[in-house]
Specification:
It contains 14 helices and 32 strands. By secondary structure, it is α/β, with parallel strands linked by helices. The strands form 5 sheets. The protein has an 8-stranded parallel barrel, surrounded by 6 helices. The chain has a 7-stranded antiparallel sheet with strand order 20-19-23-17-18-22-21. Strands 9-8-30-31-32-29 form a 6-stranded antiparallel sheet.
């Protein structure tokens, strides 16, 4: 079974860097309808990215994953056709209208914005012809297994990056507060804001804290379990992240997945071509992170203190800033100099985060670093005993810029006086006939060794290995001729690879039979914003189809539903004595806005509403 490492691309350059560092596929937004409006790209840039990715049999997926308004249907249909013509391998969508459109033969992937978290929801989407479902992040392994048993299409799951506190696609907090919809790509990230938590009497239980902010996801220890549960694509979040973040995280997960495949006894393999050689050593903790959590992928799907060094507490703490990697503890403060108990080598320009026992943090840049001492501009809030984290490692960042790995495809070469045959690691084979008048080799052994040496080098994306030389009627070939021959082999192999891909892309996307569904069987809370989506839902058997919240805000509607629970995180779960003493309603306050919290304890879910 082939498994895929899927990386984010804010732009063409980051997408190419992700491929170079080992991504099997990248996902990128076109000029419109992407769920990150700040990450749009011209179609021509996506064409260039697809051309580059396809050289390594890697894929490019384009996000068209906002809800689509009625007047935008033709524009969306036109864009999808342009993306298909640009070489995109699949479209990631949220709006069910796309499944009803007259489209070219391109695969459709159901976005995580579709909030796929039950077998019934998964089966509904699979019946519409979606070839892949991108599952909700707040799922356990057992829930993934049940979805796997219900559908035959591919399943994709996030394994790293920032987390939405709400079920994806079902969050209307940004729309309510600002008129900017997360389902339209313009989320204001209200979950990262600071709130007071108060009870019904107005007593403040927690003050000025980002209570809805989660740590980042990190599931490198769960790749094997997820693969065995039926996940084929492992996705990194981050279409707004910079190049250094993407390169570092992709390189880390490439190593993890390669090790897993190597130990699987041939059961699993990567889905693209080429080995990643040389370059920087990755370190996830040295790229942006708010601390890490495995969510429900903890032991047995339940919370525990730590797993693989990753805290299973979900809340990001007092700050939503990046904390980076742990450095040590403040030992002494003398004027502007701070001595840190650490074994890390600090450098001028490092970014440091000092965190006190109550969670308050202070960020500083090290103007001068001398061993374990750093000179700071301001030390008024730095105290002995504070924990120190490095959220910007200047030496590591420079290595990401200057020490990139090389991606190469291995190919064997067999040489004879009549022709040269090259066969790459995927079985693509080309043969070049030798023509011309070349003098007989006087010293055959030396001539054969020269052929082996010149044909066992790099050309383009290929690393050639001359495995045999037929020494009968051996001729003398200059180094220039052999080098040119090697380049010709590389060009011919690449052409064969791309021709094969072009043939495989000429197929027809055949939607599955639309299933009649009992309305009560699916808790559908999709965002219906156009006539095609309503038609789709009607054919699926839904009789009551409401409009999207963005079009018709409903008074008292849920603004957010989540498996993250503030009560549980603060030790106020109603199942323990401390929580039972504070049984009444709870509210979040921010700048005059009052949000109510209710708790569906049977499902272990928290709801945010007006």
């Amino acid at each position: 079974m082939q498994i895929e490492l899927l990386a984010p691309a804010k732009n063409k350059e980051i997408g190419i860097a992700a491929i170079d560092c080992g991504a099997d596929a990248v996902y990128i937004a076109g000029p419109a309808f992407g769920a990150r409006e700040a990450a749009g790209n011209p179609v021509d840039d996506i064409r260039q990215l697809a051309d580059y990715a396809h050289r390594f049999s890697a894929k490019v997926y384009a996000t068209v994953n906002t809800i689509i308004y009625e007047e935008e249907l033709d524009e969306a249909r036109k864009l999808i056709r342009e993306l298909w013509e640009a070489g995109v391998d699949a479209i990631i969508v949220q709006d069910l209208a796309v499944a009803m459109m007259d489209l070219p033969p391109i695969e459709l992937h159901a976005s995580t914005q579709s909030a796929i978290r039950t077998p019934e929801q998964a089966a509904m989407l699979a019946s519409l012809g979606f070839t892949r479902l991108i599952l909700e992040r707040q799922l356990s392994l057992e829930e993934i297994r049940k979805i796997r048993a219900a559908v035959g299409c591919e399943l994709e799951f996030f394994v790293h990056g920032a987390l939405c506190v709400s079920y994806s696609g079902n969050c209307y907090l940004s729309q309510y507060l600002s008129g900017r919809s997360a389902n339209r790509g313009s989320c204001i990230q209200a979950c990262r804001s600071h709130y007071d938590l108060v009870n019904a009497e107005g007593r403040v239980l927690v003050k000025d804290t980002p209570l809805l902010s989660l740590k980042d996801y990190k599931l490198d220890d769960s790749i094997g379990a997820l693969a065995d549960a039926g996940i084929c694509s492992f996705k990194i979040e981050g279409r707004l992240k910079n190049a250094s973040y993407v390169k570092n995280v992709v390189r880390h997960y490439r190593r993890v997945i390669d090790d897993f495949c190597a130990q699987s006894g041939g059961k699993y393999s990567k889905s693209s071509s080429g080995a990643i050689v040389g370059g920087f050593a990755p370190s996830c903790h040295d790229s942006f992170n708010r601390g890490f959590t495995p969510l429900l992928m903890g032991r047995g799907g339940k919370e525990s203190s730590t797993q693989g060094g990753v805290s299973t507490g979900w809340h990001s703490g007092e700050s939503t800033k990046s904390i980076g990697s742990f450095v040590g503890t403040v030992k002494e403060v003398r004027g502007k100099w701070v001595t840190i108990e650490t074994s890390c080598g600090l450098a001028n320009g490092d970014g440091l985060l000092f965190i006190s026992d109550n969670g308050m943090s202070v960020g500083m840049r090290a103007d001068v670093a001398e061993g374990s001492r750093v000179l700071l501009k301001d030390t008024d809030r730095i105290k002995p005993g504070q924990k120190v984290w490095r959220n910007f490692n200047i030496k590591f960042e420079k290595s990401l810029e200057t020490d990139m790995p090389r991606r190469q495809i291995d190919a064997d070469v067999a040489f004879s006086p009549a022709s040269v045959v090259a066969t790459d690691e995927d079985g693509f084979r080309v043969e070049l006939k030798l023509s011309g008048d070349y003098p007989p080799a006087i010293q055959k052994e030396k001539a054969a060794e020269n052929i082996r040496q010149q044909l066992s080098k790099h050309s383009g994306i290929y690393s050639f290995h001359c495995t045999s030389v037929d020494e009968s009627d051996l001729r003398f070939y200059s180094a220039a001729r052999l080098n040119a021959l090697r380049r010709e082999l590389a060009e011919a192999l690449e052409e064969a690879r791309l021709n094969d891909l072009a043939q495989r892309r000429i197929h027809h996307r055949t939607p599955g039979a639309v299933l009649k569904t009992e309305r009560g069987a699916i808790d559908y809370k999709g965002n219906c914003a156009n006539s095609l989506a309503r038609k789709c839902l009607s054919e699926l058997g839904f009789s009551e189809i409401g409009e999207a919240y963005e079009l018709r805000p409903v008074k008292g509607a849920e603004l957010m539903r989540s498996r993250y629970c503030i009560r549980r995180e603060l030790g106020l779960c109603l199942k323990n004595p401390k929580g039972a003493a504070e049984r009444g309603p709870l509210f979040l306050l921010n700048n005059g806005c009052r949000l109510a919290l209710t708790f569906d304890c049977k499902r272990c879910e928290m709801i945010v509403h007006l």
